[in-house]
Amino acid sequence: MANWLTNLVAKWGRPGGDNAHQIYVQLAGYARTPALYQRYDIADTLDGRFDALTLMTVLVIRRLNRIDGKGRDFGQEVVDVMFADMDLSLHEIGVSENKVSKKIKVMATAFLGRRQAYIKALDDGDKDALADALSRNLYRENGTDPVANGLVKAVMAEAKRLDAVADDELLAGTIGEMRHLLGKNA
Fold it and tell me: Given CB 3.0 to 4.6 Å as the disulfide criterion, which of 45, 85, 99, 146 pairs with 151?
């Protein structure tokens, strides 16, 4: 009885459905993988982790948007879960209540800009535009070359891998391993 009640109460405070939450948990786990930061020279900081998570989330959102009917709404659920977690994380690291909403707005604006740039570059198959967007956003123009370090190739391969995942699998909360980004099949 207690487990049932605990699970019910936990769901009340969580946006999105179980499958959206499941996808977010997978993405967050991948975004915490040390090899990702080492392999592509991404800063292992709060900003770096946000940007890595954003990149992975955008790849999934891009794929979900191609599913007729439920895809866009489900993608929004994943984003809602992500930002609910960001809100909680900011509280947990001690950001004051009145500053959390301002920080979330900044993060949401950043997410939307990155989403637009990454999706356009991927849909156009434009490696240069993707490299520019990654340099500007993920690397904050620190001189790291996402073409030279293989990130552009890995992102494009990951997008292609996700394109091959069945709609039903995605809607059931399964995205598969992001092996190209994690350097397991690049």
Answer: 146
Rg (alpha carbons) of the chain, rounded to whole number:
17
Q: Domain residues of the chain, as ranges? A: 44-186
Give this prediction's pTM: 0.89
Phi-psi region of 41 (alpha: psi -120 to 50; beta: other; left: phi over 0): left
Q: How confident is the model at residue 5 (pLDDT cuts 50, 70, 90)?
A: very low
> For the chain, what is the largest distance between any 2 Cα atoms, rounded to a whole number of angstroms?
56
For residue 165, what are the contacts with CB-CB under 8 A and spacing of at least 6? Answer: 63, 174, 175, 176
Mind listing the pLDDT tens digit for each residue in 64-101?
999 998 999 999 999 999 999 999 999 999 999 899 99
Residue 16 in this model has a pLDDT that exceeds 90:
no
